[in-house]
Amino acid sequence: MSAGNTKQEKDESVLGESDDRNFHFEEMSLADDRKLTEEEEHLEATVKNYPNRGVDDFLRNFLSQMSMTETLDCFQTEWTEMAQRGLVNPEHVDVVPDVHVENQRLDSELKNAQREGEEYRLAASAGAETLARVQKERDFQRMQHKRVVQEKNRVIEDIRKLKSQCDHYELALKRSNEKYQAALKQTMLVTLERDKALVQAKSQANLHLQIVQGVRLGEVSEGKCLLK
Length: 228
Prior knowledge:
Keywords: Coiled coil. The chain is 87% helix and 0% strand. With 228 residues, it is mainly α.
């Protein structure tokens, strides 16, 4: 028995040392202690300043918060009947302890906080959906912009090529025009030379004709003279 107790005490000692090693103690400063004291005093002052409430009011509020409407109606009916019969005096009803009133107030604040948290969560979810939609629209617009830039660059390249071709065609047209003007000038010179040659040929033909006619007239005159 003694050996068993000794072994048990040794195990408990080892466990205690192990728990002490695993547990991290945090030192509290005087400022932290003073802060806790101020919070406790504030809570105590809040509880003291909170108005005392009767048991009936406490029950009504509790049943209303729990949405127990049928039970609340039954309580109201029975409580009113008892008050009318004089079985209960509302002025001598015990007051609910402050801690219960404070718990009820804290529970109401907790529900309000949970409701606000749910509203914030829904708002955050809606904001996330809106953000995702905006990001999707931004990506679409960015893609459209990239496509427009690519199309613009392609059009600029086409315009550059067309301008180069136009410059080449303009140079070729200029050369063709020069050749045409030279050919036209040459043609005009050839025409003038031809007309000049035709005039000379015609003039020589007329002269030759006149000479031939003159010779013939002379021969005729000589013939007449001989006949005489």
